[in-house]
Amino acid sequence: MSALPPGLQHKVDAALEAHVSRFLDSHGGAVASASITPEGDVTLRFDGACQACPAVAATFYSKVAPIVRAVPGVRSVSAPNVNVSEAAVDRILSLSAPRRRSSGGGDHAR
């Protein structure tokens, strides 16, 4: 059995603390590394308000996963309570994003 790459657990936890924890804490939630395999597959655990939050998938894919994926040695990131694909979340976010109004001269410029 292979050992965990040196310092990987600490690097993942430090990245979560530095870039994610304050945001989640402000909403009554938290995230922590539940397990890390020697190959660099990270499983995260959402706690507190995140456990029942309908936006946990959007938070995972837009804020949390990119931070953890950026840690050298991480191959993949997952969370058991995120049951929506990244593609589905991207589609939902694109449909719910505010639309910009055209600044062109349109019909009202007459």
UniProtKB/TrEMBL annotation:
<dbReference type="Pfam" id="PF01106">
    <property type="entry name" value="NifU"/>
</dbReference>
<dbReference type="GO" id="GO:0016226">
    <property type="term" value="P:iron-sulfur cluster assembly"/>
</dbReference>
<dbReference type="GO" id="GO:0051536">
    <property type="term" value="F:iron-sulfur cluster binding"/>
</dbReference>
<dbReference type="InterPro" id="IPR001075">
    <property type="entry name" value="NIF_FeS_clus_asmbl_NifU_C"/>
</dbReference>
<dbReference type="GO" id="GO:0005506">
    <property type="term" value="F:iron ion binding"/>
</dbReference>
<dbReference type="InterPro" id="IPR034904">
    <property type="entry name" value="FSCA_dom_sf"/>
</dbReference>
<comment type="function">
    <text>May be involved in the formation or repair of [Fe-S] clusters present in iron-sulfur proteins.</text>
</comment>
<protein>
    <submittedName>
        <fullName>Fe-S cluster biogenesis protein NfuA</fullName>
    </submittedName>
</protein>
<feature type="domain" description="NIF system FeS cluster assembly NifU C-terminal">
    <location>
        <begin position="12"/>
        <end position="77"/>
    </location>
</feature>
